[in-house]
């Protein structure tokens, strides 16, 4: 034991001597680097914690506010065309609460409200009217395309749940049909946008290309943004639908 102590003592003394012999400037630089690293980690953690909002977006009359109320109060409430955002706190077991923000779907207002709250988004719920979808597919695709290409959304990569609402109605399209039609329309939009960029800038900006080059658009290719589809009926949600939705919310919280 004494031999071990005597052998370790010179090593300790050598380390201490080396530190004392170091140029003070080098020590200051090392300390500064450690401080900067710790500060950066704290900064990004705080930014992540500040993004506790779940944004409810979509066209007017898609059922955003009704879905919002079903999740918050578990009951149906009378809705009307919103001209301002609705807010509510949503408790998540063993995690900090989420802030639900229901944004107006009016085509003249939705971009302004999205710009106001997109930096807070931890997740996005994009609500689609499954009954009127065939008539609205172009507007839905354009809204969703602009959302996915937004620089702030691209930076934070919040997961997106596309809720195919009004599934209780006989004319409602299934989530698979809606996804397929959206992907086809998004592919057309992407081709148009790339052509515009190439004609104005000489070449397409890599940061604006959605999906994989040389391949038709698919939501699976917009990673790291995770896009999922869910069939839902906000008018009278089934327990299984609510369970899937709340499980997703708990996962993204």
Automatic annotation (TrEMBL):
One of its GO terms (cellular component) is Golgi apparatus. Gene3D superfamilies: P-loop containing nucleotide triphosphate hydrolases (3.40.50.300). Keywords: Endoplasmic reticulum, GTP-binding, Membrane, Nucleotide-binding, Receptor, Transmembrane, Transmembrane helix. It is found in: Endoplasmic reticulum membrane. SUPFAM superfamilies: P-loop containing nucleoside triphosphate hydrolases. GO terms for molecular function: GTP binding; GTPase activity. The chain crosses the membrane at residues 25-44. Belongs to the SRP receptor beta subunit family. This is Signal recognition particle receptor subunit beta. The lineage of its organism: Eukaryota, Metazoa, Ecdysozoa, Arthropoda, Chelicerata.
């Amino acid at each position: 034991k004494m031999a071990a102590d005597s052998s370790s003592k010179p090593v300790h003394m050598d380390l201490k001597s080396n530190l004392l012999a170091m140029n003070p400037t080098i020590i200051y630089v090392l300390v500064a680097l450690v401080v900067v690293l710790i500060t950066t980690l704290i900064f990004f953690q705080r930014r992540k914690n500040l993004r506790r909002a779940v944004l409810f977006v979509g066209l007017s009359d898609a059922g955003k506010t009704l879905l919002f109320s079903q999740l918050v109060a578990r009951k149906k409430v009378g809705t009307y065309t919103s001209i301002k955002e609705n807010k509510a706190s949503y408790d998540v077991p063993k995690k900090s609460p989420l802030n639900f923000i229901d944004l107006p779907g009016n085509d003249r207002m939705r971009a302004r409200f999205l710009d106001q709250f997109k930096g807070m988004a931890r997740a996005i719920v994009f609500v689609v009217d499954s009954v009127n979808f065939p008539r609205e597919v172009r507007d839905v695709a354009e809204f969703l395309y602009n959302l996915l290409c937004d620089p702030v959304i691209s930076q934070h990569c919040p997961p997106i749940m596309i809720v195919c609402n009004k599934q209780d109605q006989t004319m409602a399209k299934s989530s698979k049909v809606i996804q397929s039609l959206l992907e086809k329309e998004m592919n057309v939009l992407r081709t148009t946008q790339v052509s515009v960029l190439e004609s104005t800038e000489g070449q397409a900006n890599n940061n604006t290309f959605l999906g994989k080059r040389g391949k038709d658009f698919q939501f699976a290719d917009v990673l790291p943004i995770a896009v999922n589809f869910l069939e839902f009926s906000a008018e009278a949600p089934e327990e299984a639908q609510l369970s899937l939705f709340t499980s997703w919310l708990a996962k993204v919280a």
